[in-house]
């Protein structure tokens, strides 16, 4: 069974994938806007199975100092992951929920907020990932391109409220040394660009995501534990 067939099977079964499995990563980011801490992001990433039957489940909770909370859940299948489902629930000011699911060759998104319910359809494309607005741990997927000889490479990213899947170009990887938590750390920097500018994701020697700078440079997330 190929990744897409596995994805369809999971959808047909209601994607009831338990959280248990191999822990890939977990931690907490502090979220900075122009150098000022505005919130934190806790996340876990787990993996079950192998090959085409492999499932990756990433969950996060972003707590902002203004009282807003965003909880997210992401499901992908396959060793070269295929996006299957994504859900985000925001509470506090401007509450909203978003549910995204793959159905055949399209993604269907359902948004419910103070303005009512909206449905949107996106054509499924190769190398589609969720890089949702303000969610740092989603950039863990860029770690899979550290040793990719085909860079630069274009991905397609889903974000809440986007009119379409956004093209993201992975520019390449380079070795760097950065200060993190008062210590110097050897890392690999993966650069990327979007329609609003360039950004980067930094990974330590075990390919753990430790820092993200979003395009424009104003928003940075750094791992604290």
Question: Explain this structure to me?
Answer:
The chain has 225 residues and is mainly beta. It has one domain: outer membrane lipoprotein receptor (LolB), chain A, CATH 2.50.20. Helix content is 4%, strand content 58%. The protein contains one helix and 15 strands. The protein has one helix spanning 3-12; strands spanning 22-33, 36-48, 55-64, 69-77, 82-91, 96-103, 106-113, 116-123, 128-130, 153-158, 166-180, 183-194, 197-203, 209-213, 219-223. A 15-stranded mixed beta sheet has the order 8-7-6-5-4-3-2-1-15-14-13-12-11-10-9.
Which residues form runs of ≥5 with pLDDT under 50? Answer: 3-17
- Residues in β-strands, percent: over 45%
CATH topology: outer membrane lipoprotein receptor (LolB), chain A
How many individual helices? 1
Large-scale geometry: globular
Identify the CATH architecture: Clam
End-to-end CA span? 38 Å
Give the total of domains. 1
Rg? 17 Å
The order of strands across the largest sheet is: 8-7-6-5-4-3-2-1-15-14-13-12-11-10-9
Largest sheet: 15 strands, mixed
Secondary-structure-based class equals mainly beta
> How confident overall, as mean pLDDT?
90
What is the element string, with H for helices and E for strands? Answer: HEEEEEEEEEEEEEEE
Helix content: under 10%
Name the features.
mainly beta; outer membrane lipoprotein receptor (LolB), chain A; 1 helix
SSE order and pairing:
Blueprint: H1 3-12, E1 22-33, E2 36-48, E3 55-64, E4 69-77, E5 82-91, E6 96-103, E7 106-113, E8 116-123, E9 128-130, E10 153-158, E11 166-180, E12 183-194, E13 197-203, E14 209-213, E15 219-223
Parallel strand pairs: 9-10
Antiparallel strand pairs: 1-2, 1-15, 2-3, 3-4, 4-5, 5-6, 6-7, 7-8, 10-11, 11-12, 12-13, 13-14, 14-15
């Amino acid at each position: 069974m190929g990744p897409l067939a596995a994805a369809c099977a999971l959808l047909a079964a209601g994607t009831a994938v338990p959280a248990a499995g191999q822990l890939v990563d977990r931690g907490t980011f502090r979220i900075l806007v122009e150098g000022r801490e505005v919130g934190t992001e806790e996340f876990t990433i787990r993996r079950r199975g192998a090959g085409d039957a492999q499932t990756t489940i990433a969950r996060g909770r972003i707590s902002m100092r203004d009282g807003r909370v965003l909880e997210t859940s992401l499901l992908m299948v396959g060793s070269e992951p295929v996006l299957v489902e994504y859900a985000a629930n925001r509470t506090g000011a401007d509450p909203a929920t978003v549910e995204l699911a793959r159905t055949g060759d399209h993604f269907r998104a359902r948004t419910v907020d103070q303005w009512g319910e909206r449905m949107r359809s996106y054509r499924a494309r190769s190398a589609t990932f969720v890089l949702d607005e303000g969610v740092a741990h989603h950039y863990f997927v860029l770690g899979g391109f550290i040793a990719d000889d085909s860079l630069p490479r274009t991905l397609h990213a889903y974000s809440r409220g986007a009119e379409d899947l956004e093209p993201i170009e992975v520019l390449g990887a380079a070795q760097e040394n950065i200060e993190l938590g008062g210590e110097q750390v050897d890392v690999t920097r993966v650069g990327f660009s979007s329609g609003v500018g360039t950004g980067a994701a930094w990974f330590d020697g075990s390919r753990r995501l430790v820092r993200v700078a979003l395009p424009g440079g104003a928003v940075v997330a750094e791992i604290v534990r």
